[in-house]
Amino acid sequence: MTSREPRAALTSYAGEKIHVVTGRLAEFSLRAMLNELSRKLEFTYTLDVLGITVAALMTPEWVARKIQIPSDATRILLPGYCEGDLAPLAAITQLPIERGPHDLRKLPRFFSQEAGTSEYGAYDIEILAEINHAPRLELAAILAEAARLQSDGADLIDVGCVPGETWVEVGTVVRALREAGHRVSIDSLNVREIADATAAGAELVLSVNSDNRHAAADWGCEVVVIPDDPASGAGLEESIEMLATAGVPLRIDPVLSPIGFGFAESLNGYLEVRRRYPDAEMMMGIGNLSELTDVDSAGVNVMLLGICQELGIRSVLTTQVINWARSSVRECDLARRLVYHAVRNQVLPKHLESGLVMLRDTELPEYGDEELRRLAEEIKDTNYRIFAERDQLHLINRATHITGRDPFAMFDQLLSSEPKNLDAGHAFYLGFELAKALTALTLGKNYCQDEALDWGHLTIAEKHHRLARGRPAADRSQQPED
Questions:
Q1: Could you tell me the domains of the chain?
Q2: Which of 65, 201, 219, 356 is such that its CA lies 20 to 30 A from the CA of 382?
Q3: Residue 118's pLDDT band (cuts 50, 70, 90)
Q4: Which residues pair with 250 in a beta bridge?
């Protein structure tokens, strides 16, 4: 198996002469960063400070009229907020054109990406995603859930039956899933349910032990063999031998136990099975940890898939029923790529998969108090800038520099100055942004005005309400100079 979307090769800037475009307000900070980065990463640069205070208000068409490109430049770097079709710039130069990060503090990471990870995204662990208690659901709901699970990265849709009952419609459901393009497994010990499901196209049976192994040869498909007693492993070896003798293809799952019920010893069971059967296919059902532990599921899933990758366990069964595990399939999809790359390349699984870093950010770059004071002195317009760092919120425009950690107190202080540009829409906007900024301080995340907080793969992009094309009318005072 390979990634559907391998990560593209990252760029090395060594030896290049980069023509960087910016506005007047960012010039000082940007030049300081570029001086350090160019020495460290062995590139040179020119800085084109165009006639606008806020670089975020640039458009490619306007930049094309103003830019002065040196004859020896090898690349053009625009501000991240310079949105729109780059065709006007491409019409005046053959040089490659890139947009930098929206947040100036992220420029070191932007430049420091190393080449050589173009293979990142490959994987060899298969994800089985279970639809729990499928007999309780309508067919339309099952098909809709299967589509969501497949979109999140599931390779097989596992149809979960109800123990102690016989589901007479299982064949109909499996057939419908197959017709919708899904690979299907059946999660049951009931011989009749399994027979109907496999006849309808299920390719894998979860699970087989001494209760139903006698019928396995009749199903014509691969099975997952489990012990009769997970705590002791009793019955596992006998079932494996019987199925192997009958020529039934199988995967072995010694069964993962929850914490407090033999978790550590159950991990040892996977080690023992791998030692005893070095070439056998294996599976791990990871829901007993991700669903049954009071902790966000992403870290649990990464840890368990790391174990699977090192032991050669090439399939996992997951569920996403409880709320803290509601994105487990997507997490497993990202995790399998991360652990594959780490194990195959013998590198730490670090700074490779930002989609799994959700609660706190990887790093917290700062402007620093001195730089924020300088910015406050240089701002010449009434637009409010919001910053959050060093446990403090900052609200800045040409007449104001309010700091604190309580947005309500800060807003009261702002109102006491009787600002002329604070209509209801603008007040709502500031409240929304200050709430985001306080959340960032509380959790240890980066805050960048008009940007969504980074929740990893759960991030939902936000519209840019402060910028001229979308911000409140009271804030539309800064326009490009022609």
A1: 17-112 (3.40.50), 126-351 (3.20.20.20), 369-475 (no CATH)
A2: 65
A3: low
A4: 223
